[in-house]
Write a structure and sequence with these properties.
Layout lengths: L1 E2 L3 E6 L2 E6 L17 H23 L4 H21 L5 E7 L4 E7 L5 E6 L3 E11 L4 H13 L11 E10 L3 E7 L2 H22 L5
Helix pairs in contact: 1-2
Length: 210
């Protein structure tokens, strides 16, 4: 089993499972994840809902102890629900099953999950695609960094070139990115593990490795 903050790769008998929330190479937000994250966003939404209920009580009736209790309940209920259904993390789970000779790619999210299942025999290759994302507006970046320094703030990673290594599954009729990481070593380790699994599966089935 291999685990880090980006992905988990687990082998359990005939099944290998790769799970990650990082499967898109994209520019990072100016708001660093350590400053503005899903938990904070959920708290803001829950607080907004609670304040809205409080205002409605104040407008249409008098405020009593029960009113504040209801407002507190609204906050407590909305907080976890918004974290799960509004700001829930989307992730991909890729399962290689030697027993059923299938590869399934499952996009899991609160709403609109999708699952694709392919025959393992239709898998033609597992590759690494290197993507380099350059900053779009150097002048604007310089201005933002200058303002941030004037306020004694540093935005981690802002304005830097972003490099990603995508692990792609190449089937006969389609291709799917199942992991996107900034670490080439991680990408290579995943590809090597998956390819070895495929080779072992072919050997057990009495077929030559491609």
């Amino acid at each position: 089993m291999n685990e880090n903050s980006i992905y988990t790769l687990k082998e359990n008998g005939d099944i290998v499972t790769l799970k990650t929330a990082s499967f898109r190479a994209e520019r990072g937000s100016v708001l660093h994840s350590g400053i503005f994250n899903r938990e904070l966003a959920s708290s803001f939404l829950a607080a907004t809902a609670a304040v809205t209920v409080l205002i409605l009580f104040a407008v249409f009736s008098e405020l009593h102890l029960v009113s504040y209790v209801i407002v507190l309940v609204v906050f407590i209920v909305v907080l976890p629900l918004s974290r799960i259904y509004v700001f829930g993390e989307t992730y991909i789970e890729t399962v290689f099953d030697r027993g059923s000779k299938t590869v399934s790619v499952h996009l899991k999210r609160a709403v609109g999950s999708r699952k694709i299942k392919k025959s393992m025999d239709s898998l033609r290759d597992i590759t690494i695609d290197h993507i380099r994302i350059e900053p779009e507006n150097p002048d604007g970046i310089a201005i933002v960094e200058k303002i941030a320094l004037q306020h004694g703030t540093v935005i981690p990673g802002f304005g830097e070139v972003k490099e990603f290594y995508n692990v792609d599954l190449k089937f006969e009729d389609a291709g799917y990115t199942v992991l996107s990481t900034s670490s080439e070593d991680d990408a290579r380790a995943v590809v090597e593990t998956l390819k070895k699994y495929i080779e072992d599966s072919l050997q057990q089935a009495g077929k030559p490795a491609s």
